[in-house]
Every structure is written in C-alpha cells, then in structure tokens.
Write a structure and sequence with these properties.
The complex is a heterodimer of chains A (389) and B (365).
Chain A: H1 7-23, H2 37-52, H3 71-83, H4 91-104, H5 107-118, E1 124-127, E2 143-147, E3 150-160, E4 168-174, E5 185-191, E6 197-203, E7 209-221, E8 225-226, H6 232-240, H7 247-265, H8 279-307, H9 314-338, H10 356-363, H11 373-384
Parallel strand pairs in A: 1-4
Antiparallel strand pairs in A: 2-3, 3-7, 4-5, 5-8, 6-7
Helix pairs in contact in A: 1-3, 3-7, 3-8, 4-5, 4-6, 7-8, 7-9, 8-9, 9-10, 9-11
Chain B: H1 7-23, H2 26-34, H3 41-49, H4 68-80, H5 87-101, H6 104-116, E1 121-124, E2 128-134, E3 137-148, E4 155-162, E5 171-176, E6 182-186, E7 195-206, E8 210-211, H7 218-253, E9 255-256, E10 259-260, H8 265-293, H9 299-324, H10 335-347, H11 352-363
Parallel strand pairs in B: 1-4, 2-4
Antiparallel strand pairs in B: 2-3, 3-7, 4-5, 5-8, 6-7, 9-10
Helix pairs in contact in B: 1-4, 4-7, 5-6, 5-7, 7-8, 7-9, 7-10, 8-9, 9-10, 9-11
The chains are: A alpha+beta (389), B alpha+beta (365).
Chain lengths: 389, 365
C-alpha cells in the first residue's frame, strides 16, 4: 500500500498548480450552473496552453502526442483542473475518442485524429443516446447503411453535449438490423460539417446548451468507421472503461464543499452566529467531509487500477455511482443549511459563494451520466458481484 | 500510489483465511458464546503459535515486527471469521499502550507474554478512576464499566486521573486482577460479549506498576487507541465483506416467483450498495493504517475510517437480514452472529457520532 505520489508526480502537481495560479485567476473560474460562451472559450485556451507544456495528454504515449506518463499523472491533471474550476473543454476527445482510436483505429486514423486532440485543437461530442434509447443503449436505431464506398446515416442522437462547439461526433449506429442487437452496431467518427446534419437546441438545466442531432441521408466515407464493422458495441464498452476515474468531477464538487465549509465558519449570511456553530450543521459538514474523502479514494482507486494495467469496470461504476449520489447529498445539505439564501443565483445581491450552491444543486440533478444510477447498480451487481441476469 | 497488497500480505491473507475456516467455524463461535470465559483457549494458543498476537510488535520482544498495514490484513480475516477472544483488546490496544508508554523493563516483562498468549491484558477507561499519592506509589479507587475480558485478564491497565489536581492528567496504572481490592461483575451483553464492571477499592499501585511516568500517559494512550481503532475497522470490513458474499451466494440459489431472487434488481441493488460501502471502507481503513505506518498525523483518517465503519456495519446488517429474511431471524442462522458483533464494534472506540464530532472539530479554523 502506498497512498503517496512519487516525487516526480508531486513535482508535476506543484508545477501545474503554479500554472493554474498564474493562468486561471478567480474571475475566470467557472461558476456552477453558469457556463457562458466566454468561459467555454477560456477553457479551450487553457487546453492549448496545457498542450504546449505537453500536459494536456500527459498520460498518452509519446508517439500520439502525449507526455508518455500514465493514468496517475492524468488523474493529477484532472483533479487539479477540477479543483480550480477550469471550464471543461475537449473532454470527450481527450477521455474517450483518443483512447478508442489508439486501440481500434487504423494507422491512418491515428495519424489523422490523435495529434489534433492532444494539441487541444478539436472538440468532440458523443452520439450514444437517442430520442427513444437511453439505458438500453444497444437498442439504438440510428441507421448506417452501406452504399458503395459510403455509409448513409439516418436518424437522431439525443442529449448531445458540446454539439454547438464540436467539430466531430463519435457515435454508434446500426449497421446490421438483422443481427442480434449488440452485434449489429458500429462505431464512427463524423465530421459535423457534413451535409445533412442539423442540430435542434436542447438547453440543459445546468446552463449548458446541448442538442438533438439529426442525420438526414448523411454520407460518410468508409474511413470513418472505427474498428470492425458490427463490433462497435464491444469497442464502445471497452473504451468506456478508460478515463473513468471521475477525478475532475470529484474535485469540481470538492472545491465548492471546501468553500462552503469555510463559509460556514464565518458570520452567517443574516449576520448571525457562524452556521458551523450550530450542532446540526457541524454534524452535516462532518458527514459530507467523510463523503468527499470516500469519493476521492474511490476515484483514485480507478486511476490506480488503470496505472497497474487492470481494467476497472465495476470499480468505475462504484466510483461514479458514489460520486453522483454524494454530489447530490452535498448539494441538498448546503441548500438546507443556507435556507432561502440557497436559492440565490450568481449575480444576485447577497448570493453566497457566488451562487455556486444554487448552481451545484442543478448540476447534481445530473444523475445519469455514463449510465443512470440504476444502470451502475446493475453493473456492480452483475459484473462486479457476478449476480445472475 | 499503489493500493495492492504485497506478496507477503497476500500470503498472510490466504493462509489466515484457510486457518480460520478450519479452526474457527461458526460452531466454535457459537460454543464460545455459551462459554463462561468468552474465548477459546486452544484457538488462542494456535493463533499465538502463528505469531498473530505479535504481528506488529517489535522482534526484540518476540513479535514479528510487521506494520499496522500487515495487522490490518490479518484482522480483516479475523473479523471475517468472527474470531472470538481478546485479540483486539490485549494484542493490539493494551500491547500498544505498553509499547508506547512502558519502560524498557516493563516492555521486557510484559510484551513477550502478550505475544506468546500467556499474558492477557485489558483496559479500564472509566472516568471515575482516581489515584492519590501514598508513600510507595499511588492508591487507586473507583470503578470502570465496559472492561473487556477482565475475567480472564492477568492485568488491567487503568486509565486514571488524580483525585485532587488542577488538570486531569492521565496516569496509566497496571493492576493485577488478583490484587486485594479489585472486584468485578460480568455485564450481560449482546452475543455474550465478555465485559465487566470492575471496582477498585484503595488498591495500592507501586511505582513500578505505573506505565511510564505519572501523569504522562495521554499521548501513549491516544496513539494506541488510534491504532486499535484502525484494526477494529479492519474487523468490521472483514465481516461486511463476508456478509456481502453470503447474501450474493444465497440470492443466486434461493428461488422465488420461479427464478433466483438474485435476478431481481431490488435484491441486486441492495447488494451493489453494500459493495460500494465495502469498497469505501477498504480504502479508508488502509489509508489510515498507511498514514500511521508512515508516522504521519492521522487523526482525521482514523475518524474517517471509524465513522464510515459504523455506517458500513449497519448497512451490512440491514442488507443481510433483508435478503436472508425470515431464516436470518432464527438463532440457527449465522447472520445474527454478524449483526451482533457489528453492533459491539460500532459502539466501541468511539461510534460514528463521536468520530464525526472529531472531524467537525478538525474542520474548525
């Protein structure tokens, strides 16, 4: 057992923190529930700077434009960016598409796609869910029909985060409607400028503008297929197991928790005694402090497994499920403690913590990322504990 | 960063599991529950023979010189098997107090016996144990409840304070249980857990029976308590892991509505929740052990582990009894053995509320 970073890792963390102190002053840090265009663009600028330092993909192999280190360094990066509330950009490409191409891509695809991701120049979105398909993802209906040297896509993707910023979509489509549902799916990378693609805006409650992405006879060259035709489901499940430490999300919330705990030590918003002097508040703060610690360790467990060459699967679901629920517990607790002040948004007079509590409460309704909490429980029970289907 | 066990620790784990499966079946656990002494002398001697009682005690006193992390690995297995006896109180808590507070002579006199199992020590921490100076040392008076295994202990380490004094400094006094003026009454407890109300009536404490210096026992006691708390978390973790395995196994066979109940999501999700808590408990417990092994401050980490162990215990109890259902309400089923011990552990060495309070104090500026 060793809960320490190596001296090199510690040094990297220190250099990274120095970078963040200089480059990300408090006024540039993201407020929960208030993702402005300016903030998003700032996140992309930071990515470019991180890429120049060869930190953005510090865990990737050098041949693909990475830093040649591993998942622990990538975890340090995620944790610190999250804690500094650096607006998130590029995460789908960095976390999912890049690793998928490294494993399943052809040499041409690696040459074409990986370096731009590592340089922080491109944005990806993900096309998994559909209007009629969520948890039972393998029932997806978007058709990709082979027509000579092309695939022709028809159908819709739903809940496309980053759709309005993305250059490419990484998606799953049905290539064999006759096969069993898991065995007729293929994985593609689609240039969103391709003719026939349209976006229907879908505003989220956390301030993000997502979309429904519609495909009307969208023609793709065969080179857009990633991996084997009709093996896309299995490719996608494998790549979902990468980059799932969830450290960014943990640290993003942890920062608000720390700020909130400090806030509770000062005079109450109504000028009264510090909230933390109230025994019930004191107790709840301690409970959530324990929850945050547990969440952190479960995330690092995933990163460590990856660094040791193991494939975290149910462990990633453990961390993700715990995190989703802990975030909600914290948000509910903070709302309760602040009473009517908790409803004040960023910009309102006397809004505590810049409205971050109101924002994180909305964000915490996001209980479905990478699978609903029920799906994660199914994965833990069936894959982790071997319970029967 | 490395959350794996060493090869030696893996061997320790598997050999301990194998040994306890053979030597400590639940039939023995039940027999000990019915016994007067609350422990199994044969098993005790065998565990001593394996070096378990001295696993983290220095080699110069007959111990193995292992780390707290090694001991954590071992006690996960000890907890898992519901191993009866004064392991935690004598071989961990009391032994660590002697090690931290005792003079070289006291250590040389006491620790080898603790390691061999011939000496059993326990601890009295009641807040009404008062000492007064006399010519040759101290006189101890008062009483303490919840003294584990006092009936079989050779000595009791008494945590005492001066009867008159500005500040309640802690003096650790070693009292032979056969001394005049010591009397004890068994406290009838859950699962017949062995604990006593011990009364001390003007008991003479010669100077050489004071562990370390008069009025200077606090830090040695605190460190020992921290280590013992981690070890108790390891026991809780081992039990909860076993309950999880038991319910998953049962749910795989037990048929209702024409299919194994393990296929129902209502059952799966309970098991998944317990798995999440077990994983969290493991990380928190090993983090605390590792920190103490590094000699780093670990107050928060110990409190994280113990506060979580309480909730883990409750969840294991609830999950076990709800999935085993009716049969687990019978004494013949083993589940009740786990839930009783979960409660003993939860209340011992500071419960969840106590440790949350410690954490809250640590958060103050």
């Amino acid at each position: 057992m060793d809960f320490n970073f190596t001296p090199q890792q510690t040094q990297f963390r220190e250099e990274l923190r120095e970078f963040l102190r200089v480059e990300v002053p408090p006024e540039k840090q993201e407020v929960f529930g208030l993702l402005t265009e300016e903030q998003y663009q700032f996140g992309r600028e930071i990515n470019l700077k991180l890429a120049e330092l060869n930190w953005l993909t510090i865990g990737w192999p050098e041949e693909h434009g990475g830093g040649g280190k591993g998942p622990i360094e990538q975890g340090i990066l995620a944790e610190d960016l999250g804690y500094w509330h650096v607006p998130k950009a590029g995460s789908i490409g960095l976390g999912i598409v890049g690793p998928a191409i490294m494993v399943f891509g052809t040499q041409d695809q690696k040459d074409r796609y990986l370096k731009p991701i590592a340089r922080g120049e491109v944005e990806y979105c993900q096309g998994f869910s559909e209007p009629n398909v969520g948890s039972d993802l393998a029932s997806l209906e978007l058709r990709a029909e082979r027509d000579g040297d092309e695939y022709v896509l028809n159908g819709s993707k739903m809940f496309t985060s980053y759709a309005f910023h993305a250059d490419y979509m990484y998606l799953l489509a049905r290539t064999d409607p006759q096969a069993q549902k898991h065995r007729g799916i293929s994985m593609f990378i689609v240039d969103l400028k391709t003719q026939g693609i349209s976006l229907t805006p879908l505003p989220y409650i956390n301030g993000e503008m997502a979309a429904q992405t519609n495909f009307d006879n969208v023609r793709l060259p065969l080179s857009c297929l990633i991996g084997e035709e009709n093996r896309g489901w299995y490719h996608a499940m494998t790549t979902l197991d990468y980059e799932r430490s969830g450290l960014f999300r943990y640290a993003n919330v942890r920062r608000v928790f720390d700020d909130f705990a400090e806030f509770c030590q000062g005079p109450a918003p109504d000028g009264g005694q510090p909230l933390a002097e109230h025994p019930l508040v004191r107790h709840q703060l301690a409970q959530r402090r324990l929850g945050m610690e547990t969440w952190k360790l479960l995330c690092w467990n995933v990163a460590w497994m990856q660094s040791s060459g193991a494939v975290p699967n149910s462990e990633a679901s453990v961390a993700f499920l715990y995190g989703s629920e802990e975030r909600l517990r914290f948000a509910e607790m903070a709302m309760e403690v602040l009473g009517p002040y908790s409803t004040l948004r960023h910009g309102s007079p006397v809004a505590p913590l810049q409205g971050n509590i109101e924002g994180i409460h909305r964000e915490s309704m996001h209980l479905h990322g990478a699978g609903t909490t029920e799906i994660h429980r199914n994965i833990i029970a069936q894959r982790g504990l071997g319970m029967p289907r | 960063m490395d959350f794996s066990l060493t090869e030696q620790q893996e061997i320790l784990r598997s050999s301990a599991r194998e040994f306890l499966e053979a030597e400590c079946p639940t039939s023995l656990v039940r027999a000990v529950e019915e016994s007067e002494d609350g422990y199994a002398p044969d098993l005790w001697r065998k565990m001593a023979g394996l070096g378990w009682l001295g696993i983290s005690l220095p080699e110069q006193y007959g111990g193995t010189g292992g780390s707290l992390t090694d001991q954590t690995v071992l006690f996960e297995e000890i907890g898992r098997a519901l191993t009866p006896g004064p392991l935690l109180i004598s071989s961990v808590l009391a032994a660590q107090i002697v090690l931290n507070a005792g003079s070289d002579t006291q250590k040389a006199n006491l620790i080898p016996g603790l390691v061999s199992g011939d000496v059993i020590l326990t601890l009295a921490r009641g807040d009404r144990l008062e000492t007064a100076s006399n010519d040759g040392g101290l006189t101890l008076s008062g009483e303490s409840s919840f003294v584990p295994y006092a009936g079989i202990a050779n000595h009791i380490i008494c945590v005492t304070r001066p009867a008159i004094g500005a500040w309640p400094d802690t003096t650790l006094a070693l009292v032979d249980t056969k001394t005049n003026g010591v009397s004890m009454t068994a406290m009838d407890s859950i699962a017949n857990y062995s604990q006593f109300l011990v009364e001390f009536d003007d008991v003479s404490i010669p100077n050489e029976a004071v562990l370390g210096e008069v009025a200077e026992g606090r830090s040695a006691l605190d460190l020992a308590v921290r280590r013992a708390t981690v070890i108790q978390c390891a026991e809780t973790l081992g039990r909860a892991q076993r309950v999880l395995e038991m319910v998953v196994e049962y749910a795989g066979h037990r048929v209702a509505f024409g299919r194994p109940i393990g296929t129902f999501q209502a059952v799966q999700h309970r098991c998944a929740d317990l798995r999440v808590a077990v994983d969290g408990g493991r990380m928190l417990t090993y983090q605390a052990a590792w920190k103490l092994d590094q000699g780093l401050p670990a107050n928060d980490e110990v409190s994280f582990a113990k506060a979580q162990a309480g909730t883990l215990s409750r969840l294991a109890t609830e999950t076990g009894h709800s999935i085993f259902a009716g049969i687990s309400f019978t004494t013949e089923h083993d589940m009740q053995l786990y839930s009783a011990r979960a409660k003993i552990a939860e209340a011992n060495l500071g419960d969840t509320e106590y440790h949350l309070d410690q954490l809250a104090t640590g958060m103050q500026p």
